[in-house]
Amino acid sequence: MLTETPIKDVIEEIEGYGGDPVKYCYQCGKCDTVCPWNEVRSFSMRKLIREATFGLTEIENEEIWRCTTCGRCQEVCPREVKQIQDMIAVRRMATGYGVFPEHIKPIRAVTAGLGAEGNPFGEPRANRADWSKGLDVKTYEEGMEALYFPGCYLCYDPRLKKVAVATAKILNAAGVDYGILGEEESCCGESIRKTGNEEMFKELAKANIKNWIEHGVKKIVVSSPHCYHTFKNEYPEFNVHFEIVHISEYICQLIKEGRLQFNKEYAKKVTYHDPCYLGRHNNIYDEPRDVLNQLPGLELVEMPETGVNSLCCGMGGGRIWVDTIMADRFVNLRLEQAVATGATELVTTCPYCVTNFEDARVVMNLDNQIEIKDLTEVLAELL
Ligand code: SF4
Ligand code: SF4
Fold first, then answer.
1. 125: Cβ below 6 Å to ligand 1?
2. Which band of pLDDT confidence, cut at 50, 70 and 90, is reported for residue 1?
3. Domain shared by 41 and 155, yes or no
4. 15-19, 88-92, 255-259: which range is least confident on average?
5. Shortest-distance atom of ligand 1 to CA 83
6. Which residue among 136, 160, 215, 283 has the highest number of C-beta atoms inside a 10 angstrom radius?
7. What is the residue with the minimal CA distance to atom 2 of ligand 2?
8. Ligand 2 centroid to 178 CA: how many Å?
9. Confidence at residue 11, expressed as pLDDT on a 0 to 100 scale
10. Is residue 123 part of a domain?
């Protein structure tokens, strides 16, 4: 069994992936004080950075798979060390050698599904637009106002399909001339890239980009912050530029333009959870709150760790595909924070967060106390 990669290889791989700033780390440990893992168990990014600096990373070390890429440590690091890029670099080496700890092995099935059907579930590509049956949702044509890209979870997961339906209802109510690409759409590739599978990411990205260019797409509205982040910040690596808009931003704009109005009462106390890839990674904190605050009767209350300090749900960085034992789930802490506000609904705008909170709600026997909703589901109830 291979236990250590050659030192030079490790250092070159990290440098090649933009992780060169590991050498600036002066071991202050601030990253460890904010990392959500240390709210449930012991974990040291500081130690992993130290090992990477000297090329001493062991690729079978389970700890290299722990980071959810939530970005909290990067907010406090005084030396601008790129912890996330460093972890992806070492995962690329592990993936290259095919070295996966037992609980990470489900990623192999995810990869097979992505390669065969363009989605992590391995569901038939032909069923990708099934969620839109019976709704007034057109196929995208050049010249339309926007392409709507629901993403894999909203296309295939029974719970999340409801979010795609709610989104279509909102876009229809606002009179937006939009379309979808259905079975031509492929996974954005965000989570598989975070597991270190650069080849699969490139394959998926190129398939999407080719489609968009062939269909004359200019503007893309997305539901998932993970798609948003990847299209906006990573697809430009392929020398393409599309206008990428998250649905929360788009709804905010539609309200401002007078195309959407909500006059019915929503007399509920709700709390909003900032998804890492919408908030910390892309600075979108205000728009979802602005939309909620427009709803008559709605009372918005904040959790203790909010905005830039939002507590990660634990599903980023490819961890959506792997098993996390009950004691290690910081989503449970987040749900307790939500319940403690007295809110009866936890609203968010990310399919990973919705999935994880729904799971936690049942496991923690809190399903009678709080509901989990995507922002679009709240709004669709008022149309
Ligand atoms: S916060 Fe930055 S400088 Fe401090 S230990 Fe962590 S990576 Fe190193
Ligand atoms: S990105 Fe988040 S999970 Fe990863 S080490 Fe930093 S704080 Fe911890």
1. no
2. very low
3. no
4. 15-19
5. 7
6. 160
7. 70
8. 37
9. 78
10. yes
Residues with CB under 6 A from ligand 2: 31, 34-37, 45, 67-73, 83-84
Asked if 300 contacts 342 with a C-beta cutoff of 8 angstroms, the reply is no
Residues 58, 154 within the same domain: no
* Domain-embedded: residue 189: yes
Contacts of 297 (CB under 8 A, 6+ apart): 265, 266, 267, 268
Residue 249 lies in domain: 106-254
What CATH number does the domain containing 282 carry?
A: 3.40.50
Task: State the distance from the centre of ligand 2 to the C-alpha of 74, rounded, in angstroms.
Answer: 8
Q: Contacts from 114-118 at CB under 8 Å and sequence distance 24+? A: 114/187, 114/189, 114/192, 114/200, 114/204, 115/200, 115/203, 118/185, 118/186, 118/187, 118/204, 118/207
- Spatial separation of the C-alpha atoms in residues 13 and 341, rounded to whole Å: 45
Burial label, 161 (beta-carbon count in 10 A; 0-12, 13-18, 19+): middle
Domain annotation covers residue 222: yes
The count of domains in the chain is 3
Tell whether ligand 1 has an atom less than 6 A from the beta carbon of residue 66: no
CA of 19 to the centre of ligand 1 (A): 13
Structure tokens at 129: 């637009």
Is the same domain home to 43 and 82?
Answer: yes
Give dist(CA 156, CA 121) in Å, integer: 8
Residues 6+ apart with CB under 8 A from 136: 168, 172
69 and 153 inside one domain = no
Q: Is residue 1 part of a domain?
A: no
